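Each letter names a residue; the fold follows as tokens. Both lines appear below:
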Amino acid sequence: MYEKNIGPFQVGGIVAPPFFIGRDKELKEMYESLRTLSQNFLVIAPRRVGKSSLLNFLKRKLENEKNIIVIYLNCRNITNKSNLSTKLIEEFLSEYEKKHKLKGFLEIFKRAMKDKILSTIRTLDQIGGSLGDIGEVYIKFREKEIDEQVYLEKTLDFIEKFSKEKEIRTIILIDEFQKLNNFNDAIFDLFKSELDIQERVRYVVTGSSIMLLQDILLKKDSPLYMMFTKIYLEPFDQNITTDFVKKRLNKFNIKISQDGLKYIHECTGGIPYYVQKLGQFCFELSQLTNKSVDKYLVQNGFERMLREFDEEFESRFLEKFSPKRQAILIEIANRDGARVSEIALAMGVDVNFLGESMHFLVESMVLQKQRRGYYDFFDKVFKAWLSRDM
């Protein structure tokens, strides 16, 4: 029987149940710590492994707790420090109003953003407390009496003070945290100062670039070193992948062979986005051919998926990687993993010539260290595309 208004797979966007699976251990650890304000978390994973969906699921779970406010920001949509400050305040007040079925807090702040200053100041004087304070801070920023850094500092102070006034706990989820590095290093020194003193606020931040996160969070001399508990999101193992695909296809009365299930995992490497996408292609091909899903049909679906990624992968390959790094990737794409010495020999260069590039490819989570010092792709779909087209 078909599920009402729900297909077998969800491709793209924030993934929620019944499509969100396989993160029970990570969710339990984070949920128990955050609800008691025990620690902050850093979630590390490459693109398409499900960081944003994990944050979304965590947000929904924490929101069920009494007196917990959860706000979410994606740094891809943040343009500067003042934009970050304003978004934090607006999301915080909006979530507070929603949780407590109230209105007016957000409107008071927005009034400070646009109304005449004298009438706004009178309103803020009547309100008082931390909400009145942050309104006055925004007016000072609006009138260029304070800069972006001070505005952000006062914003983080406001969230802590308001949380104390209302006796709530606040969780701030920040996706692609390393993007804030574009605004200058001082922003992380500020976060460090705030984390040291905040009692009512905890953070979960995510990142998809180990290289940038190292500088911000993971090096001993970095501003936020030891301030976050690290969570690494791995691709799904074969059992999770095959169980999920089989159950979703069964919901639509589509049968799939064991070889087909295993091949879906082999093609996708268990990366959630690719599992969903290849599963959807297999479902559509099964509908068209009126056949069950076997390895041959999965192969056809995978070829279709590679063709769809042609433009994206080609652009990424040519724009993100230097000629040397491109050559390294092509060599590894045509092997079942390789040592650096083997890559150097195939390229006809000294092994030391590859050091910096190998470091970059690993730190940017394109390659990963495998068995006995071998290196291979993290993204098996990108690898398959390279080995096919280059």
